[in-house]
Design the sequence.
């Protein structure tokens, strides 16, 4: 497995750590750029989450444009424990995913293990631990170092809070839905995980629904069939 599964701290151009902990060759991941954002290709009104403490409409607000990427609110929080399952459907198309960029809490509410599935709408808390994920990410303890709501500003411009996880492109092709499962956090004594921002980068190919039109001949036209002999063509004409 190549270092496409590494993660990169956007605030430090030289620093990156190994992603899922699997053995891999040390091949540098392919850089991405803002133009590869898939924000406009996500079916945001149909994005859902299990064990979400916020109102459901808050979820789509953390998929932000580049102009609003530094906003910290709303903070997506889990309800009864740190685990959360997020379902991200795409519009009418097929995606080749390059990377997942997260801005999370960087202290006691920071996610640690994130399991990822592609094109599986059946993931819930009954099978998330037993069903093999498409990919597993170890998120570093990097992010917003503010835990209490009253201390969190509306906007905080700090690129060092963002972590880009490079995904293996040969695996994440033909993606129509992505499911993220935050399994645990760094502080075992806490029962919440906090998210501020999610961005997906890749390529989008629209799926067309143009009908396939097949024309059938009710009667053959001799001029359209040059392999007919002259006598066959004459007999055909006389018969009509």
Sequence:
């Amino acid at each position: 497995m190549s270092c496409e599964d590494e993660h990169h701290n956007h605030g430090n151009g030289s620093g990156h750590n190994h992603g899922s902990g699997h053995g891999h060759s040390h091949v540098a991941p392919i850089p991405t750029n803002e133009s590869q954002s898939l924000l406009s290709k996500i079916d945001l009104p149909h994005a859902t989450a299990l064990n979400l403490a916020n109102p459901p409409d808050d979820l789509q607000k953390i998929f932000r444009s580049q102009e609003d990427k530094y906003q910290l609110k709303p903070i997506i929080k889990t309800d009864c424990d740190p685990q959360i399952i997020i379902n991200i459907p795409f519009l009418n198309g097929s995606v080749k995913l390059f990377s997942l960029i997260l801005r999370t809490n960087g202290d006691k509410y920071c996610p640690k293990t994130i399991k990822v599935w592609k094109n599986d709408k059946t993931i819930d808390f009954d099978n998330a631990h037993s069903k093999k994920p498409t990919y597993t990410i170890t998120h570093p303890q990097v992010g917003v170092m503010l835990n209490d709501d009253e201390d969190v500003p509306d906007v905080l411009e700090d690129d060092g809070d963002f972590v880009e996880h490079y995904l293996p492109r040969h695996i994440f092709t033909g993606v129509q839905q992505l499911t993220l499962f935050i399994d645990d956090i760094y502080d075992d004594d806490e029962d919440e995980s906090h998210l501020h921002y999610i961005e997906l980068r890749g390529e989008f190919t629209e799926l067309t629904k143009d009908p396939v039109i097949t024309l059938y001949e009710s009667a053959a036209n001799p001029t359209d069939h040059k392999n007919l002999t002259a006598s066959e063509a004459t007999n055909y004409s006389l018969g009509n």
Notes: DSSP finds one helix and eleven strands in the chain. The mean pLDDT is 85. The helical segments are 230-239.
